[in-house]
Write a structure and sequence with these properties.
310 residues, alpha+beta, 20% strand
């Protein structure tokens, strides 16, 4: 079969064929190589930036060590302001001895040993309070995001993954310095300080009660006087027929249970009204295990167990 192709048609067909070959070579040969070259260039830039970051970290390593030693020294000084970790009996003995030294009668002593560090916030209008609030809100936000991610993973939902072509974010100098030397934010969530809430009612002479209250306020270690209140109690002094003292019964009621008004007029039973003082305090104890020396770093401080007060 003969075709009627002119010389012009043949040249046009050859030209189109060459164009197809050139486009194919460019699309499947040249363009992938250009993309690979750009990718290697981007990786090289990232590696160079990472190298500079690591070099900066190495340069700052000595400064970090010096800062760490300074922090350890400051922590050691600060921990002396707090009571060491105490057991139930030690807290009981401490409060009892304070009252006995002032010559007071002890009518009630209750306290709860903590199992977690204190979460007490600073004064509401202080700068530290707002720093605490911001940090705790950020921690709550991170915890929520982690919970949502875990829920999505367990329910089979897919999360949007970053594109392969997304360039790694390069840290700024300020971000690097904050990562290496620490944030300017001075507040860190408490992990070492425990608070023992104590409620104690004592009775006796008003001057001795004031002395006891002043003694609590003047303690050298960290104790917070949460509140205090005054009251009255009645002592029933019992004597035998010969006038010898037998014993004492105390009550905050107007009359002691089981003692009638007539019996109070009896010479064998006498009533004495006294003042009482109820104080509520928090005793702050410091977990010193974080600043233990290398020789005892693996040992818990005396009195500290998995649950304080055991």
């Amino acid at each position: 079969m003969k075709t009627n192709m002119t010389e012009r048609d043949k040249k046009l067909l050859v030209f189109m064929f060459m164009v197809v070959i050139i486009v194919g070579i460019g699309y499947w040969g040249v363009i992938p190589q250009i993309k690979a070259a750009n990718s290697y260039t981007s990786k090289a830039e990232d590696e160079e930036a990472e190298k500079k970051i690591n070099q900066l970290k190495i340069v700052n390593a000595a400064g970090i060590d010096m800062q760490a030693e300074e922090y350890k020294s400051q922590i050691t000084e600060k921990k002396d302001e707090f009571y060491p970790i105490m057991t139930n009996s030690e807290v009981d003995r401490m409060m009892t001895e304070m009252a006995r030294d002032e010559g007071l009668e002890i009518y009630d002593l209750t306290f709860n040993m903590p199992t977690f560090p204190s979460s007490r916030m600073a004064y509401e209008n202080s700068d530290l309070y707002y720093e605490q609030k911001a940090v705790l809100e950020e921690l709550a936000k991170q915890e929520k995001e982690e919970d949502e991610a875990l829920t999505a993973a367990t329910s089979g939902q897919t999360t949007t993954s970053p594109s392969k072509n997304t360039k790694k974010k390069i840290q700024t100098t300020a971000e690097i310095n904050e990562e290496i030397m620490g944030s300017d934010n001075i507040y860190q969530p408490n992990t070492d300080i425990y608070a023992v809430p104590v409620s104690m009612t004592v009775g006796g002479n008003i001057s001795k009660l004031n002395s006891f209250l002043n003694r609590i306020i003047g303690l050298e270690k960290r104790v917070l006087l949460v509140s205090y209140s005054w009251g009255e109690y009645r002592e029933i002094l019992e004597y035998d027929e010969e006038g010898n003292y037998i014993g004492t019964t105390s009550s905050s009621a107007s009359l002691v249970d089981g003692v009638t008004a007539e019996e109070l007029d009896n010479e064998e039973i006498k009533k004495v009204d006294r003042k009482s003082l109820t104080v509520k305090i928090e005793i702050f104890m410091c977990d010193t295990s974080a600043v233990a020396s290398a020789t005892d770093a693996e040992e818990l401080p005396e009195g500290l167990t998995e649950e304080l007060g055991d």
